[in-house]
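User: Fold this; tokens only.

Assistant: Input:
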Amino acid sequence: SLQYYPATLVLYAAGIAAISKGSYSLLKLLLEDSIGKDFLQQDLIDEYPIWQVLNAMSCFPQEPEVFLPEGRRPTAGSDRIARQLRPIVNEVFGEDDEFDNLFDELELIIALVYANGSQNGFVAMGRFARHPGPSPNERTPLSRMKRAINEQKMNHPLLVAGMFGHDLERLKEALNRAWGFARQAIGRW
């Protein structure tokens, strides 16, 4: 799974740049329209949507403590990626506290795309899930996204860019799946 790590770093850097510039059409291209090849299926080479193979949980799917000094926590892979990207992004955009917000927003969008496209109910969890919050009134990435979707409706940047098939209900359903999965996963830790 670690063979996906370099490409995942590139995807995350490009995704953070796209979000910081409000280029959600680029994010759509990166996450929904791109295809990756999975070389892990023994002798088979299958094509998959990029969101399925390039995310923190795909790079470090099981027992991240074997590979990471961060140890066994639900977001150890995400923490590693953030630590690798922070100096690079700060060098380009300047140092500020915005990196964490951009990183968490990107991982949440990856999770939403994953929830929308996954048939097995699994959601790619990231740092955004650390504190899913009991209500949409809290200041968590999940609650901020829920508020933005409810306020902007069809004018939400993800829908304007054509993500989720321009379907507000699909976006809301993906958010509900991500929220539920985050609460369940964090509850186990």
